[in-house]
Write a structure and sequence with these properties.
Blueprint lengths: L6 E5 L12 E5 L15 E8 L10 E6 L2 E7 L5 E7 L3 E6 L6 E2 L4 E4 L5 E4 L1 E2 L1 E9 L5 E6 L5 E5 L5 E8 L1 E8 L4 E10 L4 E8 L1 E2 L1 E6 L5 E6 L2 E7 L8 E3 L2 E9 L2 E10 L4 E5 L2
């Protein structure tokens, strides 16, 4: 390899026929070649079966494998529930599944060593759902956030204002909605239970206020009123963020790498544009 900039480089091996390359970091200095001896490891598989609570096969379930929080492979189950994860590096893998049929999943990742067969994945009610409607909703963007976590899921509502949020873990969720004309709604403290659907949720879109938070030392901001989170987004240095919120008092928390660096309190009215500086 030539024309590499000076610095630290991580080497990977493409293709499955030559085996897996253990995590390898090389430091490159200007004008100085680097000699490395690379030793590959065999690629392995994990095979097993995913079943429902009545021992029926769980077909077409998306399964992913990770090592040290790094994605290393994925597959889907066959009609009989069996699966095979191929071309895995040696080591302990954590197997997870995406939400299946709206509320079924694994309560926790299943650990298995690469090269193992006969792994059983027993799906059970793990996720819940929220169903609701926005008055004057039509084509609004709906975002659900779980309190005390970074879990968030968003999608557009139907033209009649109906919306649904699936694959939600147990907990307390806040739902925010934003229309194309700057109208917003916040529905607070919705309790989600495994295998259950939280229904009869309604919200009314109304004119909101635009916040423009800015902080050169932060990489993200969160807008909340006590435990209710109305918005959260990343920040770029020198560029203010944007969040449309209902009128009223709000706390803007600025964070960097997950740690709070500043906070500001504001009270806004409908139609107001408020710049929020963290000094």
């Amino acid at each position: 390899m030539t024309d590499l900039r000076p610095g630290r480089w991580q080497l990977t091996l493409d293709g499955t026929d030559l085996g897996a390359l253990p995590p390898t970091i090389a430091t490159v200095f200007a004008g100085a070649p680097v000699a490395l001896d690379l030793h590959t490891l065999p690629r392995l598989t994990i095979e097993g079966r995913a079943t429902l609570s009545d021992d029926q096969p769980a077909a077409d379930v998306a399964i992913t494998a990770q090592q040290d929080d790094r994605f290393i492979g994925g597959t889907r189950t066959r009609n009989d529930g069996t699966f095979k994860l191929a071309a895995l590096p040696p080591g302990i893998c954590e197997l997870s599944v995406e939400p299946f049929s709206g509320d079924l999943g694994l309560p926790a990742p299943v650990r298995a060593a690469a090269g193992t067969t006969g792994v059983e994945l027993h799906l059970q009610p793990t996720f819940g759902s929220i169903r609701g409607v926005l008055t004057d909703g039509g084509d609004a963007w709906v975002m659900a956030r779980r309190r005390g976590s970074d879990d968030a899921i968003g999608n557009r509502c139907d033209l009649d204002g109906a919306f649904r949020c699936d694959g939600l873990r147990m907990g307390t969720w806040d739902v925010t909605a934003q229309g194309r004309r700057g109208n917003v709604a916040v529905i607070s403290a919705l309790v989600v239970l495994p295998g259950r659907v939280t229904t009869a949720v309604t919200g009314a879109l109304a004119p909101g206020a635009l916040l423009r938070p800015h902080c050169d030392t932060a990489d993200e901001f969160v807008v909340a009123n006590r435990d209710t989170v109305a918005a959260a987004d990343n920040l770029q240095r020198g560029v203010p963020g944007e969040a449309t919120v209902p009128p009223g008092p709000w706390t803007i928390v600025f964070r960097r790498a997950g740690a709070e660096v500043a906070r500001r309190e504001v009270r806004v009215q409908a139609g107001e544009v408020a710049a929020v500086e963290a000094r």
